[in-house]
Design a protein that fits this description.
Helix content: 25-40%
Largest sheet: 8 strands, antiparallel
Distance between the termini: 48 Å
Shape: globular
């Protein structure tokens, strides 16, 4: 057998044992590392390293466990919330293919219910856990570009959607799950979970409905896609009808990321979007002094939502705080693997908060896919006041992608490597006027395009800078007048 541990105590010896008295071996699934990341923040570098070690020590027997020492169970919620981060860091195509078969086997064939752990071994959760049966296939398709994972499990996903629908009330709010079961909502928030569990349940109902509309479209099931889009609109309206406070411009009780959940699935009416975002920013920056107050699901939703709506600097502040509750607090108190709770109660080896590592690749290094399997790539690093440089590599199914940027004052340098048979859209963050050169040759100056160097296919001004379209190859960009996130 195997066990996760940090210290070993030996009793009953008559004297001090020799140094080779005990031998410890590192064991885990044979998954190949695919991602590297580093930047000018020692805290973020340490967070990336600690997450990698945490995730790796929880990959055993084709099951991503919640911890390697206490429960050692394949919690579906923990598994899907870290899936994107895990796929940036490791090659998990075969690993997740096997685990999805486990999830399919564990599904109740009569009701469509997906249990909270698979292979099933008990444990609590709620609808946010079973949604792994939709989220992980979609993430795998996005990363690896293989439609078969969607086609093979479309029946499982459809049954799960039928199950969720059967648990929703007239406003599409999911108030219950299995008889005798219990919903955890946004688990492991700082202190007590205050965000209504039904609210989190319904967010996941909306999220997987949105994903299912995309999956149905990919598979050519246009009628299903249309049905899921209509259902999504009902869920959005139901969430706002039940939980939006028009006077306070917030949702539910206005804590622990409620506004981020609503914004993430576009439940907020367009006329209220700015006011809700302003409330969210105020709540994070002022009420919580720049800290998160979210749990395992709300934390990545909060970070991504702030970034999407132009508040990436606030997201970085929350990720780099040093006092409780924060990742810095964990690391300052000796964490070598991620804790289960912000306080340090319970397990000291739980990967679930490592979901934010995907943000380091997407936002800080700027590497994301525009088309499944990285057939089209986007390189769009955000340049922060508190970061001077960042670099990352991702080994994809099409080959390695590399991006490295450095800022000195208003000058910005970006080196990228794009694999064969792909195109990339590279967004260089600049203000007007700006000059952009590639390998020393000016291709953009004050809004005017110059001659394109080899490999460059197009250049256009966009909201957050200048977008350069390139084919495969290595490129070295230099720009003036950098805009900060």
């Amino acid at each position: 057998t195997w066990h996760g541990f940090r210290y070993v105590e030996v009793r009953g010896l008559s004297g001090e044992p020799p140094k080779d008295f005990l031998e410890a071996k590192v064991v885990h699934a044979a998954v190949r590392p695919t991602g590297t990341f580093s930047c000018s923040s020692d805290l973020l570098n340490q967070l990336h390293e600690v997450y990698g070690w945490t995730q790796l020590t929880n990959l055993h027997g084709g099951v991503p466990s919640d911890c390697p020492h206490r429960e050692r169970l394949g919690y579906t919620g923990d598994g899907h919330v870290t899936a994107e981060a895990a796929m940036y860091c490791f090659d998990l195509a075969q690993f997740y293919t096997k685990w999805l078969d486990d999830i399919s086997d564990a599904q109740n064939q009569e009701t469509g219910f997906v249990p909270h752990t698979t292979p099933f071994a008990g444990g609590g959760g709620g609808p946010g856990w079973g949604c792994a049966c939709v989220i992980i296939p979609w993430q795998m398709y996005r990363f690896y570009g293989d439609r078969r994972i969607l086609a093979n499990h479309y029946g499982m996903m459809s049954q799960w959607m039928q199950y969720l629908t059967s648990r929703a009330d007239v406003d599409c709010i999911i108030t219950r799950e299995e008889p005798g079961s219990w919903c955890l909502g946004d688990w492991c928030t700082p202190g007590q979970v205050e965000v209504p569990k039904e609210f989190v349940n319904t967010y996941f109902f909306g999220l997987v409905t949105k994903i299912m509309a995309s999956i149905a479209s990919v598979l050519g099931r246009s009628d299903d896609a249309m049905g899921y889009r209509a259902l999504l609109e009902r869920i959005r309206k139901g969430m706002t009808k039940r939980y939006f406070n028009a006077d306070k411009k917030n949702y539910a009780n206005g804590v622990q990321g409620t506004e981020a959940f609503a914004l993430a699935i576009k439940a907020v009416p367009p006329s209220e979007e700015k006011a809700v975002l302003d409330y969210l920013k105020q709540h994070v920056a002022v009420t919580n002094s720049g800290h998160v107050d979210t749990g395992i699901f709300g934390t990545p939703v909060l970070i991504d939502t702030l970034t999407k709506y132009g508040c990436a600097d606030l997201a970085l502040t929350a990720l780099t705080k040093q006092d409780y509750p924060s990742f810095g607090y964990m690391l300052k108190h000796g964490a070598t693997t991620l804790w289960e709770t912000w306080e340090g109660r319970g397990s000291h080896n739980h990967p679930m908060y490592g979901s934010v590592i995907a943000w380091l690749y997407r936002a800080v290094a700027g590497i994301s896919m525009e088309e499944p399997g990285f057939a089209e790539i986007k390189i769009a690093p955000l340049v922060f006041r508190d970061l001077n440089w960042a670099k990352a590599t991702v080994d994809t199914v099409r080959g390695p992608i590399r991006a490295a940027w450095e800022r000195q004052g208003s000058s910005f340098a970006l080196q990228v490597c794009i694999p064969a048979n792909t195109t990339a859209r590279i967004v260089i963050p600049t203000m007007k006027p700006a000059t952009i050169a590639e390998s020393g040759k000016v291709l953009w100056h004050s809004g005017a395009t110059r001659a394109y160097p080899a490999g460059v296919r197009g250049c256009e001004e966009v909201e957050d800078g200048v977008a350069v379209t390139v084919g495969s190859g290595s490129y070295s960009f230099a720009a003036s007048c950098t805009t900060l996130a």
